[in-house]
Design goal:
heterodimer; A: alpha+beta; FAD/NAD(P)-binding domain; D-Amino Acid Oxidase, Chain A, domain 2; 12 helices; globular; B: alpha/beta; Immunoglobulin-like; 3 domains; five-stranded parallel sheet; 28 strands
């Protein structure tokens, strides 16, 4: 019997599991995919919002500024990439300036630090590649970027280091309310837990439904993103937001943590909870809009595109809290700024669990730290030389687009990569302009050897995502 | 010698494919004794090693060889000429000091991080394939979508199939070769879908790889949507309108478990770009003089890193020339700068080299923008050459003799491909 079963190994589930692993509790994370972060998390834009966008009377508005602040500590502990590059909401006409002022006021009331309205000249100096038709901007220096999949991996790995069980390829099929506990029936086993935390993203209402709850619904909203060639690195220094629209913060220019530029997302309601398709309309919308803000960005520089689903609830806010079923707790409807809020949500859920009667006793041997992955390409000559002296595989290049060495691929496997995407998300191998054309067979060789699996059983991202067939198979 | 690296060389060649090996031999032929080839793969030979079909060497060796045979012959020559080869090595940068001497920074499992000094460098890194991302196909992102070259590597070098039911986007040569190869391995190739109204591959490949195997080639058609969650399940294909946008009213579905992408090659010039060497935006390769020297003195380029060639034999010829000039350079020979600029005119997409000199004979490589037949190539007012046809997928080559340039007193020569005038005939 576990104390807590977390359903969903996205960034929210992993953050909660990691937070609760500070205490003497039996915890399990149940994830239907082959690796954590393979659902909505991996397609998240990776923005740590300053917090001025969300209205203060919403739960997301209450958690966002705290979440943002918690990132400094979290990053120090877990060594994932995080950079406070700042954000600019840009105004294209005089009529948009009152909105900048409203956002500034809203942010200040919530404690967002350093908000400033920049005039045209200051904006031009800071971001010379933006269109000269922009007339002002709201600058929020505390906004930052991370790689969301990197955070999910770091959280889950640290949680596992602290005793959490992680069950992957484990899909929840049924939840039975028993006396004093909940039985979570999955595709592989039945898990008993006193508390179940529903972090199932776009499926959260289905999971709640399995427990007999029907008080909320999830309406996935798709966002398409387009990743641009690293030729454009440095084109903009900060996150660039337009004046927000009703349902979305609009189409953004995002310098990712690794410096490459990403543009998007769109906002399209969909009924298909697995809809990860990109469309002609989406790319036209994204590039049509972005080229007005930053004229040097064109569709031709796209190296890859993807789409993800926001788990929008019928209340348009987070749904976090206990339910009429004792022990069943929702952490649902986590749409933007969910990633920013993740560490704050974890604390919020901790407090809920406490008030629901869970006894929290701190572990003496909790290990808060996780060493970051080696990043050969980002080191200076001396650091590189030292690594190579220690391990010659740091001099063996596997992915040449992103300069990833074989030692880094091994490290990715050591830290839990089981698929090609798992390697990509941990090491960047295959993320560059050739999109794995050269390194995929090498990464498959390494996975095959390390996991002791035949070459043809290595997948792109688990499930039926096979890469090759054996020649003799008929 | 394989695996040997010394501290100083006359010529260092980056890339051990046909261009790199040809350049190294060219440098050796002109008397340079210290030549090093750096190759990133575990074995030198480049993409030839996975091209197990025949058709290589018809021009150079006057016999039909497979890719590995062609590579093997050159590797043997390289070894016989006592050229050093370091496979499994990656060039992370080249520093040029004020005296023009170049320090090549190398990463390799066998040698760690090392630097070798050289007088001249030949860039011969080849090219890479354009991917799905570069052509922007809407739909889902399942596994089973890969470039034709990667599929070729899986099949020919590793012994695995990319799938059983194959669709191919783009009619590049590798895609055509793989259509045949996978058919021979028992796969079902549903068809080749080409955006343009003409094939992007050589005519001989269309005939030998598609027509001979009854594989349909759908011209002016593209893949408009990819379906499938974990693995690709089908594609929607549609004929394109004159603006090259798909006409969805005429679309149809093609079930498949694999989509090969064969939509063109891009010279791999990251290293070149990092060095600040000037590139031709059309070819994607460096701007070169008639000695195949780039904008950086003592730095030469040849093969597919310069511009994408049709046949390896042509690569070899160009590479030997580049190697010869690189060898001369390392021995202190300095040729006068070219004084004629060659510029593409009507219906010419690009021409290489970018400048000429009356000092030597030139082989001009060019590609047309649109098919035309019959037609003529006009080089300024110096010469005209009539051709039965030109075709974007087939490189056009012709020679300009030095005595012809002696008569030229301008500084810019324009090349046009023009329709024949009334009364003109191709002989």
């Amino acid at each position: 019997m576990y104390d807590i079963a977390v359903i969903g190994g996205g960034v929210i589930g992993c953050a909660i599991a990691r937070e609760m692993s500070r205490y003497r509790l039996g915890i399990v994370v149940v994830e239907k995919y082959e690796e954590v972060g393979f659902g909505t998390t991996k397609t998240n834009s990776g923005i740590i919002h300053a917090g001025h966008h969300s209205p203060p009377d919403t739960l997301k508005g209450k958690l966002v500024v705290r979440g943002n602040k918690l990132y400094d500590r979290l990053c120090k502990d877990l060594n994932f990439g995080f950079s406070r590059i700042g954000e600019l909401v840009v105004a294209r006409s005089e009529s948009e300036i009152p909105e900048l002022e409203r956002l500034k006021k809203q942010g200040e009331a919530k404690g967002v630090p350093g908000l400033e309205i920049w005039d045209r000249e200051r904006l031009r100096n800071a971001e010379p590649n933006l269109s000269n038709t922009l007339i002002a901007a709201l600058h929020a220096p505390s906004a930052g970027v991370i790689n969301p999949y990197e955070l999910a991996n770091a959280l889950s790995e640290n949680a596992v280091d602290n005793g959490v069980d992680l069950k992957v390829n484990c899909a929840v099929e049924k939840i039975v309310v028993e006396k004093g506990f909940l039985a979570v029936h999955t595709s592989t086993e039945t898990i008993k837990a006193r508390f179940v935390i529903n972090c199932a993203g776009v499926y959260a209402d289905k999971i709640a439904g399995m427990a007999g709850l029907s008080d909320f619904t999830i309406h996935p909203r798709k966002g398409e993103e387009y990743m641009l060639d690293k030729r454009l690195k440095g084109l903009v220094q900060r996150l660039i937001f337009p004046i927000p629209e009703k349902n979305t913060k609009g189409i953004l220019i995002i310098p990712t943590f690794d410096g490459t530029i990403m543009v998007g997302p769109t906002a399209q309601d969909t009924t298909d909870r697995d809809d990860a398709s990109t469309t002609y309309e989406g790319s036209e919308q994204v590039f049509g809009f972005v080229s007005k803000i930053c004229p040097s960005i064109t569709e031709r520089d796209t190296i890859t595109e993807f789409a993800g689903l926001r788990a929008v609830s019928n209340t348009n806010d987070f749904i976090i809290g206990p339910t009429r079923i004792k022990g069943f707790i929702n952490a649902a409807g986590i749409q933007s700024p969910g990633l920013t809020c993740a560490p704050a949500i974890a604390l919020y859920v901790r407090d809920i669990l406490k008030s629901e009667g869970l006894v929290l006793e701190k572990k003496k041997n909790f290990k808060p730290h996780l060493p970051g992955p080696p990043r050969f390409a980002s080191l200076n000559d001396e650091q590189q030389r030292r690594l190579v002296e220690k391990d010659r595989l740091f001099a063996k290049v596997v992915c040449r687009c992103e300069l990833v060495t074989e030692a880094e691929i091994h490290s990715a496997v050591d830290h839990g990569a089981r698929t090609l995407d798992g390697i990509k998300f941990r090491s960047r191998a295959g993320m560059g302009r050739c999109q794995g054309g050269f390194c995929a067979p090498r990464c498959m060789d390494i996975l095959s050897k390390r996991l002791d699996k035949p070459f043809q059983e290595i997948t792109k991202r688990g499930g039926d995502s096979w890469v090759v067939k054996k020649m003799m198979d008929s | 010698m394989l695996g040997r690296v010394e501290k100083k060389y006359g010529v260092v060649v980056v890339g051990g494919g046909p261009a790199g090996m040809g350049a190294a031999l060219g440098a050796r032929d002109c008397g340079e004794e210290k030549v090093l080839i750096l190759d990133r793969e575990p074995e030198a030979g480049g993409i030839l090693l996975q091209c197990i079909h025949s058709g290589f060497g018809m021009h150079y060796f006057r016999e039909e060889l497979t890719g590995p045979e062609y590579a093997e012959r050159f590797l043997q020559k390289v070894i016989d000429h006592d050229i050093d080869v370091l496979p499994g090595s990656y060039v992370s940068g080249v520093a040029v000091d004020s005296g023009g001497s170049k320090k090549v920074r190398i990463m390799s499992e066998s040698h760690g991080l090392i630097t070798v000094e050289t007088k001249s460098v030949v860039l011969a890194m080849g090219c890479r394939e354009r991917t799905r991302g570069a052509v922007r196909i809407p739909g889902t992102r399942p596994s089973g979508i890969l470039t034709a070259g990667l599929a070729q590597k899986f099949v020919n070098l590793k012994g695995y199939l990319p799938g059983k039911r194959i669709a191919i986007l783009g009619s590049g040569d590798i895609g055509l070769i793989m259509a045949r190869r996978l058919t021979l391995e028992g796969c079902r190739v549903e068809g080749v879908f080409e955006l343009m109204p003409y094939s992007n591959g050589l005519t001989r490949n269309v005939v030998q790889c598609l027509e001979d195997f009854d594989i349909p080639l759908h011209l002016s058609t593209t893949v408009a949507y990819v379906h499938g969650r974990d693995r690709i399940e089908k594609i929607t294909v549609a004929p394109v309108n004159p603006d090259l946008k798909p006409d969805m009213s005429r679309a149809w579905d093609v079930p498949c478990d694999t989509l090969l992408i064969s939509v063109g090659l891009i010279p791999e010039n990251e290293l070149t770009q990092n060095l600040g060497i000037g590139l031709d935006v059309v070819t994607g390769g460096p701007l070169v003089s008639s000695t195949l020297e780039t904008s950086m003195p003592g730095m030469f380029a040849c093969g597919n890193v310069l511009h994408v060639h049709d046949l390896v034999d042509y690569v070899t010829r160009e590479a030997m020339l580049a190697g010869r000039f690189a060898g001369e350079w390392s021995k202190g020979v300095r040729r006068p700068k070219d004084n004629i600029r060659l510029v593409p005119g009507d219906n010419v997409r690009y021409c290489v080299p970018h400048t000429l000199s009356p000092e030597r004979e030139h082989t001009i490589h060019l590609r047309c923008k649109a098919a035309m037949k019959p037609c003529k190539i006009r080089v300024g007012s110096l010469m005209e050459k009539k051709l039965r046809f030109v075709f974007p997928a087939e490189m056009i080559m012709f020679k300009i003799k030095p005595d012809l340039l002696d008569k030229f007193h301008g500084d810019t020569l324009r090349i046009d491909i023009l329709p024949l005038e009334k009364g003109e005939r191709v002989d």
